Amino acid sequence: MAQESTPRRRIAAAVSREGEEAFVGRCLSILGDGEIDAELIEVLGGNSAGPVLAGASDGPRGYWVRTWALRALLYAWSASAEPAVVAATADTHWRAREMAAKVLAARATSRCGAEAALDRLLRDEHPRVRAAARRALDQPG
What we know:
64% helix, mainly alpha, Leucine-rich Repeat Variant
């Protein structure tokens, strides 16, 4: 699929090829140990992946890749991902924390730590993170 397509389409194509559990597992690997998976990063980042893989914006272990891996969980999901998303609410970069809140709003079911993490984000230093946490907490549980 062309890299110019939307993240939703790129992710749907990848899920179609490899299955949802496998795809989510690859995303969790990025979140868990920072594994560099250039093929996955290209799917997640589209046209922006090339510069990041070449070292821009903290490179392939940086915040964009973590943010993209989290964003992918809006389109492909497994309940096994929830603890990693809750953990991402403590990421060092605000973009990843914001995306973690968005994913929890859309996907969290067990709330195993999600509500406490979102409560903590209400006091985050970045206004976009606080806003995402507020929206997430306003969602019906």
